Amino acid sequence: MTGRRLLRAAFAAALLFTVGCGVPALPPPGGTASSRQVARETYVRALQMLDEQYVDAVDPITLQSAAQGGVWRRLVGMGAQPQFRLPARGAAVPEAAVPPDTQFTIFEQISGSKLDSATLAHAMVRAAAESVADCHTLHMTARQVQEQRERLSGTSRFGGIGVLVRRAGTDFIVVEVFDGGSAAGAGVRRGDAILRIDGKATQAMTVEQVVQTIRGELGSTVRLTFRRQGTMGEFDLALQRREVVAPIVIHREAAPGIGYLRVFSFPETVVGQVDQALGSLLTRDRWALILDLRDNGGGRVDSVHKVASRFVPQGVLFETVRSAGNTEAFNADGSYRLTGKSLIVLTNAGTSSGGEILASAIQEHGTGSVVGMPTAGCVSTGQLFILPDGSGLEIATARVRSGLRGINLNGLGVRPDVQVDMTVGDLAANADPQLSEALRILASL
After folding, report:
1. Across the chain, which distance is largest between two alpha carbons, in Å?
2. Which candidate among 99, 187, 267, 344 keeps its CA 20 to 30 Å from the CA of 384?
3. What does the pLDDT read at residue 63?
């Protein structure tokens, strides 16, 4: 029996189980009966969605074992001593071979009053989603769902300090400081490392956790501890959260005759902004363009397709492949804008998803060269599913292959034609060796 059939059988069998059968008498779980029911339905629905929608086949017992591990880690993080074992990563444990709602009830009883049902459900869903090890498969809180929708629509506004952060080793480095933000006003610089947020160390956080912790209610204050490049000392800044409008496109002249276009993401509104920027940059006296996709985290597939068509005149730009083998090809739509112009694309390890698709299309079709560092290799198309409690589950529903060579970009990414690194020291010195190399190459043409 396949994983998908087995999991559906487990859902059906759940109706025949006596809920709580064999569960030890422990303190009652937190929350009302209705909130516990919603939490249970959230977990069951999440497993069903992973089974039915994820692009690759999943093993249901492995998913439920991972969820068990999520509860274990949550309890340990609270200082509790779980009375059950932590499954090895990717392993299946026999106690997970029960219907999902029965499993949830068991762990409600085991965790007792230590975890309310909503927290328990989120710990289990998050761990199950993370177990497939796919960057486009993750659990989101209701707040993150709203932020995702705003980001994809191009209306993202939030309370922040006006910085772009990237992980470098164990540090979180400020890679951009935007004008008008409280960080710029307080003297935060590119290359500064964020060590603590409101006293909490960042070392064990993800980039998403760092960003979410820095953001907050407009007018509120967040205290950050920084370390400046080239120094061992630390310094604290209390920064007020102001409204931040996430930039999508910026453009300027990089050098005489050479335009510079940076695209941060691909929301719904990006196409018009790119067209406006190209109209300004591609004048008669400009013969080359630098397209900066560094730290571009992607966005809508239709927006990526339209923007890519501005840089590739014809042919298949990329194609998506779903679990059933259904393939959809995305061809250039005839809106090419760079006739007679030279093009160089800048990438780094923060270039992911749609940024990688665009860089790959330009590179494969030979309309431009790629300079910088290898991209993230995080390339799938994801779909957001809303769970019963209002939180969300983004699931990778299709793989993406390059248009000409049919290469699965996920896990591989794009290798630059000319590899040039940019260190934290370069950031701190306000140097950009990748941009400098692009200018050097163009000057030699």
Report:
1. 80
2. 99
3. 95
Q: Phi-psi region for residue 325, left (φ > 0), alpha (ψ -120 to 50) or beta?
A: left
Q: What is the CATH number of domain 249-444?
A: 3.90.226.10
d(CA 192, CA 234): 10
* Residue 424 pLDDT: 93
**Which position has the token pair 């259904």?**
326
Query: Given a cut of 90, is residue 87 above it in pLDDT?
Result: no
In the numeric block, which tokens belong to residue 339?
């006739």
Which tokens go with 278? 């190209």
Mean pLDDT in residue range 47-76 = 94
**According to the model, what pLDDT value does residue 30 have?**
54
Amino acid at 154: G
Q: Are 356 and 410 a contacting pair, CB within 8 Å?
A: no
What is the pLDDT confidence band of residue 5, given thresholds at 50, 70 and 90?
Answer: very low
Sign of CA dihedral 246, 251, 255, 259: positive
Would you say the CATH fold of 249-444 matches that of 157-245? Answer: no
Estimate to the nearest angstrom the gap between the alpha carbon of 144 and the chain centroid.
11
Per the CB < 8 A criterion, the answer to whether 344 and 371 are in contact is yes
- Greater confidence (31 vs 40) lies with 40
**165 φ, ψ (degrees, to nearest 5):** -120, 140
Q: What CATH class is the domain 157-245?
A: mainly beta
Q: What is the pLDDT of residue 6?
A: 37
| Domain coordinates in residue numbering, the chain | 3-133, 157-245, 249-444
Q: What pairing do the DSSP bridges indicate for beta strands 163-168 and 171-177?
A: antiparallel
- Give DSSP secondary structure letters for 176-211: EE-TTSHHHHTT--TT-EEEEETTEE-TT--HHHHH
Separation CA 152–CA 143 (nearest Å): 14
**Local structure of 270: helix, strand or coil:** helix
Scanning 268-324, the segments in alpha helix (DSSP H) are: 270-281, 301-311
Q: Determine the average pLDDT of the residues in 363-392.
A: 97
Q: Which residue type, as a one-letter code, is found at position 402?
A: S
What CA–CA distance (Å, rounded) separates 10 from 96?
11
At 443, phi and psi to the nearest 5?
-65, -25
Average of per-residue pLDDT across 411-420: 98
Mean per-residue pLDDT of the chain: 90
Residue bearing tokens 């019963």: 388
